[in-house]
Design goal:
- It is a single chain.
- By secondary structure, the protein is an alpha+beta fold.
- The chain is about 20% helix and about 35% strand.
- The strands form four sheets. Strands 1, 2, 3, 4, 7, 10, 11, 12 and 13 form a nine-stranded mixed sheet that branches. A four-stranded mixed sheet has the order 14-15-16-17, with no helix packed on it. The chain has a two-stranded antiparallel ribbon with strand order 5-6.
- A hairpin with a 5-residue loop joins strand 15 and strand 16.
């Protein structure tokens, strides 16, 4: 289901709340949002949690409001202010120019206030103790970094990016290029993979639906294959099903040259996912 995460809550905390509402034995989400951030959190239940790792790899889109002239230790409004600088002369043209410098394949150094681990400890745990460690840069893809509007020192921008992108770091780097510093004030994830500006549900809405019964609540759930609509679909005929269930790779018509595929049976029921090998055969990866 597509959940609208509120500000001020961790992704795991809201996951546990949603899990209780659905009385689910197993649940997982497909990409952490910072406590400050709001927006799309895809939550999977039961067997659908098996596809969570695949959704972690998809592109995402965000709308971010940043404040020029103020640098914080966490690069967002939850952090301690490190420095104030004059941003009164920053123009829209300068923002557009330096946003273009941060578009394409770039390298980011992950922030200390992140969930990455260093020698068994989360980076944010070290940061809270005043410890900073060296972090290796990571290559990410910024497909677009667009200016929406500017009001004095508050700037609204739209970001379309690859997995692993830290929007806080992107904003911090933009502030450095503008020579005035910047940090995130608001951040909202609007899209994830095939889900672009979708209908989402918040906790209050889910609780109201739950009061009407699980049959009503379950109407918020989407079929598992909706999360994989960007992948090619292949049909496996009945006499090949046994081989596939036994883990054998299959020669299937109309396979793509490579990559992941959605598998359907002859009745067009979603059956699982597969991967096209170098020899042109499809190997099953996860099956219902």
């Amino acid at each position: 289901m597509l959940f609208d995460k509120p500000a001020g809550e961790s992704s795991n905390r809201v996951l546990q709340k949603v899990k209780r509402i659905f009385d689910a034995a197993k649940a997982g989400h497909t990409g952490t949002l910072d406590p400050l951030a709001t927006g799309l959190l895809v939550i999977c239940f039961g067997r659908s949690t098996k596809i969570s790792d695949y959704l972690l790899a998809v592109d995402k889109q965000y709308r971010v409001v940043l404040k020029l002239g103020v640098t914080t230790d966490s690069a967002d409004a939850d952090g301690e202010v490190l420095e104030y600088q004059d941003a009164s002369k920053v123009t829209k043209e300068q923002i557009l120019q330096h946003a273009a410098d941060l578009t394409g394949s770039i390298e980011q150094i992950p922030p200390m206030y992140s969930a990455l681990k260093h020698q068994g400890s989360r980076l944010y745990e070290l940061a809270r103790k005043g410890i900073e460690v060296e972090r290796a840069p990571r290559k990410v893809e910024i497909h677009s970094f667009e200016l929406i509007e500017k009001h004095d020192d508050l700037v609204t921008m739209q970001v379309h990016c690859s997995k692993g992108t830290y929007i806080r770091t992107l904003v911090e780097d933009l502030g450095k290029l503008l020579s005035c510093g910047a940090h995130v004030v608001e951040l909202r994830r609007t899209s994830l993979g095939p889900f672009t500006d979708p209908k989402m549900y918040d906790l209050e809405q889910l609780e109201q639906l739950a009061d009407q019964g699980f049959s009503v609540l379950d109407q918020t759930l989407l079929p598992t294959d909706q999360a994989l609509l960007g992948w090619p679909a292949v049909t496996v005929v009945d006499d090949q099903m046994t081989d596939m269930r036994n883990g054998h790779a299959l020669q299937v018509p109309n396979l793509p040259a490579n990559g992941m595929v959605r598998i359907y049976d002859s009745n067009q029921r979603f059956y699982g996912i597969g991967e096209v090998r170098e020899d042109g055969k499809m190997a099953p990866k996860l099956l219902n």
